[in-house]
Amino acid sequence: MKRDSFLLQHSRRQFIQRSTLGLSALAFGSPLLARSSYIKNSKENKLGIALVGLGNYATNQLAPSLLETEHCYLAGIVTGTKEKEAKWMEQYGIPAGNVYNYENFDEIANNKDIDIVYVVLPNSMHAEYTIRAAKAGKHVICEKPMGLSVKECEAMIAACDANKVKLSIGYRLHFDPYHMEIIKIQKEKPFGAVKYVNAEFGFRIGDPTQWRLRGDLAGGGAIMDVGVYCIQGARYATGEEPIAVTAREFKTDPVKFAEVDETVTWEMEFPSGAIANCTTSYAFSTNRLHLGMEKGTAEVQPSYSYSGLAGHINRKTMSFPKMRQQAAQMDNFAQVIKTGGESEVSGQEGLLDLKVVEAMYKSIKKKGKRVKV
Ligand code: NDP
């Protein structure tokens, strides 16, 4: 196949195949059209999602995305902040019977409107609420990082298996056309094998009192928050599982980052000999996924944002219609539940990332010594 035609043919077809109707409406029409078609839609045949933890991500990304989904809708909320209840009920038409707090959360088991519980809490609470949701017989989407340790991830998978519910991790980029294209060229190898990956994601974190800087709630710093995107990126860009890592941490503000990592650079070694060179930081902005292939390069930059991604494969610019990653992600999970398949971003994906995270922290402790994954 000619290289030029590869990108054009495959990117468009792949985007159309993986898009939902809601996304197509967004892509080829106006956001207003997409929203009005939602309003006309009945909730029949859609799965009900309850968001747990109404913070930034739930408020500004997930709830608005649920207005554009084809296979699921916002059916309930779980919050520890009383004042948020009335606002959310009014804004999203949520009945009082579908509003829970952290104490009465387990009663969600008796609520037939709720099919999926979406855990959007601080990292240290992911395992507890995923396991409680599974015991309540609900399918679960859990935000990244899946848990604070491999042990927690294993317990979460076991709880979902034991209760015969599905588990998915909030890895939205698997549903973004730019990243789908990267996965495609890794699999089809039109430019040969991927031999090198450079993945970087960092931002300058503000408020020093936030939970992301507390070891007990976050379980780690930049690595746990945005470094996992680089681990993910390196894994799907190579299509391999790393065998070893070497990692070093750099701290410029030991007061602010007393409990968590600030900036970390690391290398991942893959069985084929491919290597990934990665950086994550809470001190500066960086946002890039670069592939060195046998016969060319590919790059997405910015790479991990919710929108505005850009990139190229060799000299060919990648260009895809606007879409909402979170709507595609949640619709995909709802379809998987309806059709009986398995989520492509299952608990196993989160677990594999945490294995790398644990190896990275070990390597940091050993001052950059190579640690097997
Ligand atoms: P926020 O701090 O904005 O929100 C967290 C919410 O959790 C709070 O608003 C609160 O909701 C609830 N909560 C319960 N207990 C606590 C506690 N002890 N301290 C603080 N909050 C508490 O965080 P984000 O929304 O930014 O992040 C939530 C999760 O989502 C994280 O795991 C994060 O990694 C992930 N995330 C994923 C993104 C992605 O792109 N996939 C992007 C952003 C975040 P309430 O008042 O309703 O109880």
- CATH class descriptor of the largest domain: Alpha Beta
Averaged pLDDT: 90
Low-confidence stretches: 1-42
At the fold tier of CATH, the topology name of the largest domain is Dihydrodipicolinate Reductase, domain 2
C-alpha-based Rg, rounded? 20 Å
| Beta-strand percent range | 15-25%
Instruction: List ligands, each type once.
Output: NADPH dihydro-nicotinamide-adenine-dinucleotide phosphate
The helix content, as a percent range, equals 25-40%
Which homologous superfamily in CATH is the superfamily of the largest domain? Dihydrodipicolinate Reductase, domain 2
CATH architecture type of the largest domain? 2-Layer Sandwich
Describe the protein in words.
- With 373 residues, this protein is α/β, with parallel strands linked by helices.
- The model is unreliable at 1-42 (pLDDT under 50).
- Helices cover 39% and strands 21% of the residues.
- The chain starts with a helix and ends with a strand.
- It folds into 2 domains: 12-171, Rossmann fold, CATH 3.40.50.720; 173-322 and 347-372, Dihydrodipicolinate Reductase, domain 2, CATH 3.30.360.10.
- The longest helix is centred in the C-terminal third of the chain and has 19 residues, at 347-365.
- It contains 12 helices and 15 strands.
- The strands form 2 sheets. A 9-stranded mixed sheet has the order 14-13-12-11-7-10-9-8-15. Strands 3-2-1-4-5-6 form a 6-stranded parallel sheet, sandwiched between helices.
- The chain has helices at residues 3-18, 21-28, 31-40, 56-65, 82-92, 126-135, 150-162, 177-188, 215-218, 222-238, 325-339, 347-365, and strands spanning 47-52, 72-78, 99-100, 116-119, 139-142, 167-169, 194-202, 244-250, 263-269, 275-281, 286-293, 296-300, 311-313, 316-318, 371-372.
- The site of NADPH dihydro-nicotinamide-adenine-dinucleotide phosphate has 21 residues, from helix 4.
